[in-house]
Amino acid sequence: MSETPPDLTRPGVSRRGFLQGSSAVAGSLGMAVGAAEAQQAEPSADARTIALTVNGTRRHVTVEPRTTLVEALRDTLGLTGTKIGCNQGQCGACTVLMGGTRVNSCLTLAVMAEGTEIVTVEGLADPTGDLHPMQAAFAENDAFQCGYCTPGQILSAIACIEEGHANDAVEIREYMSGNLCRCGAYPNIVAAIEQVRDSEQG
Amino acid sequence: MRSFSYSSPGQIGDASDAARESGAQIIAGGTTMVDLMKIGVIAPDALVDINGLSDLEGYAVAGDRMRFGALAKMSTVADDPAVIDAFPALSESLWKAASPQLRNVATLGGNILQRTRCPYFRDTAYAQCNKRNPGSGCAALEGGETNLHAILGGSSACVAMYPGDFAQALIAFDAEVVVSGAGGERTIPFSQLHVQPGDSPEVETVLEPGEIVTEIVLPVVPAMANSTYLKARDRESYAFASASAAVGVAMDGDTVSDVRIALGGVASVPWRATDAEDSLRGQPLTEETAREAGRIAFETAEELEGSAYKIALGADVVAGALMQVKSRMGGE
């Protein structure tokens, strides 16, 4: 395996990485960003058009093999409700439903999602604008402050109940552990999920 | 992420041929692979997506051998009541790993091949990493932080820790893996799949180029039903093990007739603690014998400055897991 230069074309390069890196690493930043722009201007020869169903609508997107699902959703389809947090599968901000199950769209290559059904936060409210019960419960319970993690939290919460992993607060916390909230709204998120679970059972 | 080509063969022979090409890499769930590609630790020229090989998604726990297809999802197997009943340690090793989102995508075959979480392996700003860049040195051993590193099975070239949980349930119960490649199909004892770093930490398994894990097979034994996976970690959920243990026990009257102990979070490869098992066989299972087994499990440990805590923690985890199994048996 050969060593490769760090990918500086995306945010998320660690501060320590910069500090530990030699001046050669820091010096290559401008060049790397330039290369990224060139890549956007000239799509790779491997770019292909894939079909997937997003929020009930059949969509076609042209992606490179390295395009992640969240990039296709946000940058190509303009569905910016899905957020990029850590961009490495640790925070859950990018959670969407794929084929009915929750996944991290930042770790999913778009080409590997071909033919699947995707649900993002934009697909939750009904066409008249009425919020999904989980969206309403998040609002009623103050289950967010800054709101950045909220789309991922809501999709994960819907799946948590659907999977049968919302039987008590302990289980909810365990099965929501893939969604971080740096505002610390966790108790209210648990309350929102319990409220929806109870209303569905009633 | 560096550009690469992508193919998704529908036949295992075609997938194996494609994966044998120089610079090619198999991808299944991709939860480790895409992460490592993003941070520049790996940069394959070609990805061979094997998710089209749907024959590999099935599994069966009935009969005298459990069989798990390599593409079965972690969440599917973890949540199956038949698995929870027949082999609780296996279910627990799966649901106590990663997050729900990752477990919905990650496959069993990919899970056993997950890469180390050594921070110096994962950060390409560090030039020294014998695993990532053979011959470059080891940033952990050359003055780095060593709290996440192996105290069993390491070498002077590499002390990276194997981070998996599921693998401990497998090695404790004599699993085998079936692999398919250019030479046809072969079966490898799970205990021989991973190789200790020695002088060549870049070599992590005995798999040949193009070989694809197709199935994991386990002989059913009574101790499986009396098993658990205990995992100590920095936070209560969604963290790698600081120390963990997969254990299973079968009793003959008041004495232990069969016992299995494997250790996670502490070794360079999946680790079976056979000396600790030997100390218990034929003995009563008490807090005293359980603690002695925990002590013996770490007798050969070689701690580094940061990882010394794992010896006491790991011994406690082994003893705790054994007592947990005992109390479950008593409750029936």
TrEMBL record, chain A:
All residue ranges annotated as the 2Fe-2S ferredoxin-type domain in the record: 48-124
Entry EC number(s): 1.2.7.4
Pfam families: Fer2, Fer2_2
UniProt GO molecular function: 2 iron, 2 sulfur cluster binding; anaerobic carbon-monoxide dehydrogenase activity; metal ion binding
Broad class of enzyme this protein falls into: oxidoreductase
Keywords from the named record: 2Fe-2S, Iron, Iron-sulfur, Metal-binding, Oxidoreductase
PROSITE patterns hit by this protein: 2FE2S_FER_1, 2FE2S_FER_2, TAT
CDD domains for this protein: fer2
Name of the featured protein: Carbon monoxide dehydrogenase small chain
Source organism: Roseivivax jejudonensis
Gene that specifies this protein: cutS
TrEMBL record, chain B:
EC number in record: 1.3.7.9
Source superkingdom: Bacteria
Protein name (record): 4-hydroxybenzoyl-CoA reductase subunit beta
Gene3D superfamilies according to UniProt: 3.30.465.10, CO dehydrogenase flavoprotein, C-terminal domain (3.30.390.50), Uridine Diphospho-n-acetylenolpyruvylglucosamine Reductase, domain 2 (3.30.43.10)
Molecular function per GO: FAD binding; oxidoreductase activity
Keywords recorded for this protein, A-Z: FAD, Flavoprotein, Oxidoreductase
Ranges of residues in domain FAD-binding PCMH-type: 1-223
PANTHER family, per database record: OXIDOREDUCTASE, XANTHINE DEHYDROGENASE SUBUNIT C-RELATED
Name of the top EC class for this enzyme: oxidoreductase
Key word Ribonucleoprotein present: no
Organism listed in the record: Roseivivax jejudonensis
Segment forming the signal sequence: none
